[in-house]
Amino acid sequence: MTKRILILSVFVVASCGLAYELIAGALSSYLLGDSVLQFSTIIGCYLFAMGVGAHFSKYVRDEDVLSRFIDIELAVGLIGGVSAAALFMTFTWMGAPFRTVLYLTVFMIGAMVGMEVPLVMRALNERRTGFAEIVSRVLTFDYLGALAVSLLFPLVLAPQLGLVRTGFLFGMLNVGVAMWTLYVFRAELENLRGKAIRACAVLFTLVLGFGLSDRMVEWGEHGLFGDDVVYSTTTPYQRLVITRWKDDLRLYINGNLQFSSRDEYRYHEALVHPAMQALPWARRVLVMGGGDGLALREILRYPQVREVTLVDLDPAMTQAFATRPELVKLNAGALKDKRVKIVNADAGIWLQKDAGMYDVAIVDFPDPSSFALGKLYSVPFYGMLRKHVAANGLIVVQSTSPFFAPNAYWTIEATLREVGLRTWPYHLYVPSFGEWGFIMASPQGRFVPPGAYRLPMRYLTGETTRAMFDWPPDMPRRPMVPNRLDTQSLVRAFEEDWRQVIR
Fold first, then answer.
1. What is the pLDDT of residue 125?
2. How far apart are CA 270 and CA 450, in angstroms?
3. Which candidate among 60, 169, 273, 347 keeps its CA 20 to 30 Å from the CA of 203?
4. Region 30-59 average pLDDT
């Protein structure tokens, strides 16, 4: 019976250890971007720390193995359990020491997790378990625990509980292992009362934190965004937050501003209307990204449009902007229009399977801040998109800031040209973002900036449109290489550009 308890504990502690690693990686990706870099460095730090912990486990005396195992479980449960909340608060309220706190936390957790399995193996060895049986059982349940969490974390835990509450949950599991071990082996342990009191104190702290998780997240996000949070959710793909200050609604994805309701009309008029005005015959329109429905709102103003297909990865995004009253008012109910077909899928995979042809394609993805997004700005993606647009049709791509991120902007333009598209770069000033850029492209057609618009506009006129396609001397064209999947040069260019201007 005691052997089974120890083996089962391996399953639980392995699950908890991997969970803390995934939480740190996901949280740092949300807050810092570049998921590949964050997960790579965190995994490296964590594994190194596990090796350090395994080494130092040899200094635990044989008679103290179970006692130290319980102490370690309580420490891992406390530090790992509060890690997500502590890291989030550090980032939102202190900022500068976040990376130091992040890697210090990962190292401490990794070192303690690295001690767990050797101590369990020694405890089993003391109970006259054969070496082959020890190794096979311990490693089997260690890997099974890792498998369980690796499946549950992205599918259930992160989207349903959120990162902060998930951290507290696994902390409680660690404490549960400590308390169960304390009970089962009570005859072999000293100072039972002291250990039980510490275990209860840690468990109470974690339960309290679990119950207050939503308040902590709200408090942290208020410090991060400054305004009242009216909606927030963590999905398998991203963290969505909507804030309000007076009449200004703002959408943030993974902490990055996507729009402000006070000036989004400038952005979306520039994104949609030059192309739609130039093609009065356009009937079928494709929108990729743009799950907020704001580009749709502008497209649906054209009576000749018969069908619009919106492809957005995250159903939580389209659901929120189709049902929440303040958001429905903002996009004029565009997501409920009978002409709109909503597809929640990866745009690259969907393009491979779709057989449709479109007159206009509006590409409104978030900036290429990670490799997952960078693939949507790559040569293969634009090559596939080209095949779905009529020869004389038009493609419009939101392309980050040509002023603040010029290398990234002109990399996108070079990538479009690489697949045989003609391009017409343009830009405008959006108060919430500064100078922002777009690129018009066509397989074979011609494009002349409209001198007037059939529909009334809040910003666009013939004069402001001509200015968008006129490039001043401080934003010259730059010779850049196309963004290919195997190198993802765009993501690196984007990070380097913004690193020069963000304090």
1. 67
2. 11
3. 60
4. 83
Burial class (CB in 10 A: 0-12, 13-18, 19+), 68: middle
- Strand arrangement, sheet containing 434-442: 340-343, 307-311, 284-289, 358-364, 389-398, 434-442, 422-430
- Sheet with 239-245, side-by-side order of all strands: 228-234, 239-245, 248-253, 256-260
What 3-state class would DSSP assign to 497? helix
Answer yes or no: pTM beyond 0.85.
no
What's the one-letter identity of residue 329? Answer: K
| Annotated catalytic residue within 364, 470, 474, 497 | 364
According to DSSP H, which parts of 354-460 are helical?
Answer: 371-374, 379-387, 406-418
β pairing state of 389-398 and 358-364: parallel
Question: Residue 284: enclosing H or E segment and its boundaries?
Answer: strand 284-289
Q: What pLDDT, in 10s, does the model give residues 149-200?
A: 888 887 778 777 888 889 999 999 989 988 988 888 777 778 888 889 999 9
What is the rounded average pLDDT for all residues in the chain?
A: 88
Phi/psi of residue 97, each to 5°? -85, 15
φ, ψ for residue 200, nearest 5 deg: -65, -35
Q: Which residues pair with 170 in a beta bridge?
A: none
Phi-psi region of 162 (alpha: psi -120 to 50; beta: other; left: phi over 0): left
* Whether 364 is catalytic: yes
183 token code pair:
């009970």
| Torsion sign over Cα 64, 68, 70, 71 | positive
